[in-house]
Amino acid sequence: MRPRGFLITCVHCHATRDWLIVEVGKVYIRCRCTHEWLEPDLDLDAFNDLFGAVHAVWASFDDAVRAEGFDGFLAGTMWI
Ligand SMILES: [Zn+2]
To answer: What CA–CA distance (Å, rounded) separates 25 from 13?
Structure first.
């Protein structure tokens, strides 16, 4: 993603894609390595542009992170 011309990159593992994007009034990105940050280059409009159909609902954020493989289990995995 290059919301403002800069490639979003995880400072921990240098991944440049395959994010869990979370909107809670502000937009956070979580990497497969579990690093998570507030992403100031993604505003709510950008989030809404990226948002697709709801395919699941979980009881907690931890459940969602685990179910979607963002709990560190798939750290370093590259989806092609
Ligand atoms: Zn990472």
So the answer is: 26
Interval 26-56: pLDDT, tens = 899 999 999 999 988 888 888 888 788 888 8
Distance 3 CA to ligand 1 centre (A): 18
CA-wise closest residue to 46 among 30, 31, 26: 26
How much is the pTM?
A: 0.81
Going from the Cα of 54 to the center of ligand 1, the distance in angstroms, rounded, reads: 24
Token pair of 2, please? 């290059």
Cα-to-centroid distance, 14 and ligand 1 (Å): 6
Q: Residue 8 Cα, ligand 1 centroid: separation in angstroms?
A: 11
Identity of residue 69: G
Q: How far apart are CA 39 and CA 56, in angstroms?
A: 24
